[in-house]
Amino acid sequence: MTQNNVSAVPNIMLIMADQLAPQFTSAYGHPLVKTPHIDALAKRGMRFDAAYCNAPLCAPSRFSFMSGQLVTRIAAYDNASEFPSSIPTFAHYLRSMGYRTCLSGKMHFIGPDQLHGFEERITTDVYPSDFAWTPDWELPDERIDKWYHNMDSVREAGVAATTFQIEYDEEVCFFAKRKLMEYACEKTQPFCMVASFIHPHDPYVARPEWWDLYDQADIDMPAYTLTRDQQDAFSQRLMDGIEASTVAVTEDEIRNARHAYYANTSYFDSKVGDIVRTLDETGQLDNTIIFITADHGDMLGERGLWYKMNFFEHSGRVPLVMAGPNVAKGTVTSPCSLVDILPTMIDIAAQTGHDKPELGQPIDGRSLWPMATGTGEDNGDAIGEYCAEMTGHPVFMIRRGDYKYIHCDGDPAQLYNITNDPAEMTNLADDPTYQTIADNFAAEVVARWNSAAIRTDVIAKQKQRQSVYNAMQHGDLTAWDYNPPRDAAQEYVRNHMDWTVAAAKTRFPPLDK
């Protein structure tokens, strides 16, 4: 470590992957995939072994994560749902507690507000911010080829020198490291930075140096696959929606896709290492609590499914590792979810005596800080909701104790014992031995959600957005896509500056004078 820059209030560094299933990391026990930097954080911190997203789709998951609120509470239904400016986020709350807040990378904000509490956003986003990706629940079986997933990502998996995803993540990492250096030079404390990457999200295309980490012959195939006829009703619709029902893929194509995914997981892990090294070089590591997580997972051929959009373990679970001052070493088995990160961050910021802010809205999460600091399991739960494409009714998930329960109107219920059956091979919902458990979950679904009212609101919101989007295709367009502000006249060395002052300002550690 170059210099000790410790302050009384800990910094927060959250590093987020896109579509990273924890099962495909060495940190969570995969025998082949190499994630040494996440492994190192897990070894010196707390690994949460039953962390879930609250919606297995990018934008809804991220809005829920940012706000600490479930999807149906804030109408964050799909990848074109607006994230209103009036919803408080952890960035707002931390900002009110004296933190500098910064976002580098993807957050998939939809709407004209592209900051949502972050003082600075130092990159653009990778996906559009308008209403174009709105599904239509009145035509739930209709594919929109322009933006729906299909099997091309599997069939075209392989190696390339560059892709838009590689370009994006290189930018995300560079600007994150530059900002951390700036914080060190300016002695900015405390800060909360989110560095959010697009990998290992499909397309499954990797650079050669990451692809070559793995021998093609060593790539494991899906452990448990089902044909369409063997699938549950919702999974059949997923297979139809991604064209897995009609587009065959070969074993070589499946192996290529998994090979590239493993390679890109190692690539993401290398970015974790770059950021941790920068924290170390700038003397900020000992006073920074680091989170590693993702917005959702990837089925990657397990059960015959791909991508996400369901609540099976490879899609619904996410990695969650915490490391830093006061974080204990160990593992947590209690179910938790991304809505728990907001109250956890508030607890982190308040641990040195800072007053907690008044919450602008009720939150659905609970703080994980007690478990992270070693006080023991809290036996909490994880709640999931899915209200996007490839369905016409909301899908609900409750994970509590050993069990996971999945409900969608019109579909048979699903109940799995995750402890005894982690591959979810046996649906216990109709097993007389588990009737009381299934009935209790079914009653909880009815008490917790009004599925018909949610469906009505989803369709109404879809019509609103479709109307706005169609109108915006006419006349001059003012895009909502974020354009990071940069003033070249103030960068590097310019005639109105003393170059020696500029050199000293950006040098770390500073020269002793």
From TrEMBL:
Domain of life: Bacteria
EC number: 3.1.6.6
Pfam families: Choline_sulf_C, Sulfatase
GO terms assigned for molecular function: choline-sulfatase activity; metal ion binding
GO cellular component assignments: cytoplasm
Hydrolase in keyword set: yes
Residue span, Sulfatase N-terminal domain: 10-349
Domain Choline sulfatase enzyme C-terminal: residue ranges: 457-508
Protein name per its UniProtKB record: Sulfatase
Family in the record: Belongs to the sulfatase family.
PROSITE patterns named among the record's database cross-references: SULFATASE_2
Keywords, ordered alphabetically: Hydrolase, Metal-binding
